[in-house]
Amino acid sequence: MVRAATVARPQPAEPLVEQRSLWRDAARRLLHNRLAVISLLVVLAMAVVAVFAGVIAPHDPNAQDCATGALRGSSSDHLLGTDATCRDVLSRLIHGARVSLSVGIFTQVAVFLIAVPIGAMAALSTRLVDNLLMRFTDLTYAFPDLLMIILLSQVLAGVAVPGGSVMIIILAISLVGWVTIARLVRAQMLSLREREYVLAAEAMGASRWRIAMTHLLPNSMGPVIVALTFGVPQAIFAEAALSFIGIGIAAPQATWGGMVDAGYAAVYSVPMLVVYPALAIAVTMMAFTFIGDGLRDALDPRAARRV
Prior knowledge:
The chain has a single domain, classed as MetI-like (MetI-like fold, Orthogonal Bundle). It contains 12 helices and no strands.
């Protein structure tokens, strides 16, 4: 008796496994952090206000409305009132957002451009070069940040810099704030240089430049991005502190720190002149801080187990 040949039934195809990467997982974890998402929306709203300040502001921030008078309260023409020189407070707040965000963001861009090459060169060069760069970094780190920013801003004030006093403040803060990022980049790259995939790339004959650009630098950017995010509110606070003591961005440019300084003389009679810009500084700094916290949790590899 001949048995009928059994025909194998086709098995259903296995579902495709979704490709996952560090940055995609980090974005997914960041979007699950409600506080970070709300803070990101706040920063985006401030960025829109800063970019379109000339359109959104109801008045010229430097125009003096002598008909309304000084230190007037809220009205239909001046929603937040006027300051001691008859200028619209709301318009100056809106234009002050442009200055504060520009200083905070462009300072960190400059810090990135300074710190990453120095940190990478220290990690990949010889021991002599590493020691020279790190001793220079330690020397810069030894000076108080605010004192160095004041000294550099006064030195740069005598130099013709494109962008005026805003660019001088950005350069002064950048030339002081790169130290921490450079040390972080060096530490990350030294740690990654001992990983198996880097040793495998070296065994396959990859050049040091290719290994640095393909493996070391991209994989060290997570902590660097978090540190740069935390650096934004520090730069905003430094600019506000310089403007408050009168050596920051030159008048009559509207800045939040300058508004606090100008309203301090009448703080007991019209306290809102100080409260409005101080509240704007506080909200911006808190938003960037919460974004930094969210990025730190999102880029932490151990967070993948919790999501």
